[in-house]
Design a protein that fits this description.
With 237 residues, the chain is an alpha/beta fold. The chain has a six-stranded parallel beta sheet with strand order 2-1-3-4-5-6, with helices on both faces. Strand 4, helix 5 and strand 5 form a beta-alpha-beta unit. Helix 3 runs parallel beside helix 4 and helix 8 packs across helix 10.
């Protein structure tokens, strides 16, 4: 007779995020064969991933880094800020130590390189779901090397991975006051709290909020938070 405990297999809900459909389909097929793992959905970019996290409530997000509209770095920071119980596992082709550090600081629980063995990917998903961290050995080795260089006073050159550029995204469209208001909005403050803190009327704050959304072409608070993270107005760690 089968022990009842053996039948109670904890199911980990996984969301796949990558802008290459073939890779998403391959990962879905691979993970669907694993007991205890279920792929609840997939997204083609970070923006879609954030929306699906809200709808599907995955336990672990397996995330690529270089994607259109919203990068893996931005999406990781936003997901961890809005949904702190969701774990993010990065699956990328980039192994630059500075970039890995930025992603970990943004809240990722693990980092693997594409081409990793299937068993290691499955093990990483289980590890981060349990609350542990998981770094591919080659990534961990590079971080240790970077630490040693820093201790010696050396500073390695930073190699930024390519990304999908948005025309004019480096231009600052907001005034200083609007940046102050945006920072407080992205931090979760209400209009009244912002008005009290900045000694403004609530109507003035609402006017600033409207102007900010128009200038950034934002449709909701999620997009405002994304902009605040990308421009450094709020911390990602």
């Amino acid at each position: 007779m089968t022990d009842a405990a053996e039948l109670e297999i904890e199911v980990i809900k996984v969301l796949l995020v990558d802008d290459h459909r073939i890779l998403r389909e391959g990962l879905r097929a691979l993970l669907s064969e694993q007991a205890g793992l279920v792929v609840v959905g997939d997204a083609r970019d970070g923006e879609e991933a954030v929306a699906l996290v809200a709808d599907l409530h995955p336990d672990v997000v397996v995330m690529d880094m270089v994607m259109p509209r919203m990068s893996g770095l931005e999406a990781t920071a936003l997901i961890r800020k809005l949904y702190p119980d969701v774990r993010v596992l990065i699956l990328s082709m980039y192994d630059d130590d500075e970039y890995v550090q930025r992603v970990i600081q943004a809240g990722a629980s693990g980092y693997l390189l594409k081409g990793v063995a299937a068993d290691d990917l499955v093990r990483a998903i289980h590890e981060v779901h349990r609350g542990s961290s998981f770094l591919q050995p080659t990534i961990a080795a590079k971080l240790i090397e970077d630490y040693v260089r820093r201790v010696r006073g050396e500073r390695p050159a930073v190699t930024e991975p390519p990304r999908h550029e948005v025309p004019g995204e480096d231009e600052e469209p907001l005034t200083l006051r609007e940046r102050e208001v945006l920072t407080l909005i992205a931090s979760g403050s209400t209009n009244q709290r912002i008005a009290d803190q900045l000694e403004l009327s609530r109507k003035t704050v609402e006017s600033h909020r409207t102007n900010i959304m128009k200038k950034l072409e934002a449709h909701d608070v999620t997009e405002l938070v994304r902009y605040a993270i990308r421009t450094g107005l709020i911390p990602v760690d």
